[in-house]
Amino acid sequence: FVSLSLQAKMSRPVQARRLEGTDKNIWVEFVKLAATYSKVNLGQGFPDFPPPDFLKESFVRALSGENHMLHQYTRAFGHPPLVKILAQFFGKLLGRDLDPMTNVMVTVGAYQALFCCFQALVDEGDEVIIIEPFFDCYEPMVKMAGGTPVFVPLRPKAPKDGKLMSSADWQLDPAELSSKFSGRTKAIVLNSPNNPLGKVFSREELELIADLCVKHDVLCISDEVYEWLVYDGKEHIRIATLRGMWDRTVIIGSAGKTFSATGWKVGWTVGPNRLLQHLRTVHQNSVYHCATIAQEAVAQGFQRELELYGKPDSYFVQLPKELQQKRDWLVQSLDAVGMKPIIPEGTYFLVADISKFKSDVPDVPDSDETYDSRFAKWMVKNKGLAAIPLSAFYSGAHKNNYNHFIRFCFAKEEATLKAANDILQKWKQEKTSP
Ligand code: PMP
């Protein structure tokens, strides 16, 4: 009797409806595969080199210095020294006076900043425009808030002269983008520089988006975590600086990407109080508070960067220089074996075309799994090289639209990139030798 009544109780659904369709997560699967099989991991996006010494030293000072209060709670919406320096720094970048207490909020990484935005701004029935390919968490986060994601693709145009494609060749169709905006649209998510392509949106493209936002009274969630990782003299333009956009934009940033310390999980939002006040409500009713010592160390990192702004010793000047070199190495390695890279203008990701390697991976007719996903799994198991299938960055119905690409992360030590090159060269030789 006891077991029967227990069973009856357990048959009741335990899962909240808002979780429907959001349970699968590509990273859980691919991180495990990489941990089990990879010799060289260019999959998940994190540097395998250390953060700069000045940042580590700030952390150590905060940890073992005189101010033992740094081991205790600090202000819920951001440690005062951090929000103050972020207000100063972003005030300079945006060309406006920012109030540290109302225009800045610190979060547990950019990930929690995104979660706060969707929970605070999106209602049941609201539509949110997402540009494909996209950082995969946008879709489930919109759905968990009760919203409906509406997708619009970046469409590739092959360069005429047979040159390698650039991320700039992936563009929005203005008429298609405009057709997605309606009275139901609450927000658009913009991610420039874009993960996974590395696309840096041009002023023209941003103006197109901005004009549509203003025309339809739509908010912009601007994920700018790769703001400093821009190459070849390109400029990262902040959409919040365009006409009519400050009042409707939340800017999201990440110390993880900015200072090569993804494990610290310090992120922030910058925006008008009319939007941030609602983000604060979500924050105070969920996470409430972020690690004080990490915030203190990031504050000191920004203090240094403010003093060195634009100078050769600035980390924000040095890091992209080093990464551009790493990008070029990986581009060369991939191009040499015929795994055609799309040259990224920004971020530390690079997408490559695997069409020429198709014959290596056994075909599974009628498989539900996309080709790129099978390829990435086969590659890590058989070659020890981990990458992420591009289809992971598309919504369910569109996963087969561009399914012959994989994404590599090149924020890696020279030795790691060399080891990747060795694997690719050996693979190519095995393919060509009879
Ligand atoms: N946005 C984008 C586009 C990202 O690529 C990432 C990390 N991969 C995040 C947000 C999350 O950043 P964080 O680690 O600071 O939470």
Automatic annotation (TrEMBL):
EC number: 2.6.1.64, 2.6.1.7, 4.4.1.13
Domain of life of the native organism: Eukaryota
Protein biosynthesis among keywords: no
Quaternary structure (record): Homodimer.
Subcellular location: Cytoplasm, Cytosol
Principal place of residence: cytoplasm
Cellular component, GO, one term: cytosol
InterPro entries, A to Z: Aminotransferase_I/II_large, Kynurenine-oxoglutarate_AT, PyrdxlP-dep_Trfase, PyrdxlP-dep_Trfase_major, PyrdxlP-dep_Trfase_small
Family statement drawn from the similarity comment of this UniProt entry: Belongs to the class-I pyridoxal-phosphate-dependent aminotransferase family.
Single GO MF descriptor: pyridoxal phosphate binding
Protein name: Kynurenine--oxoglutarate transaminase 1
Pfam family, one: Aminotran_1_2
Keyword match Protein biosynthesis: no
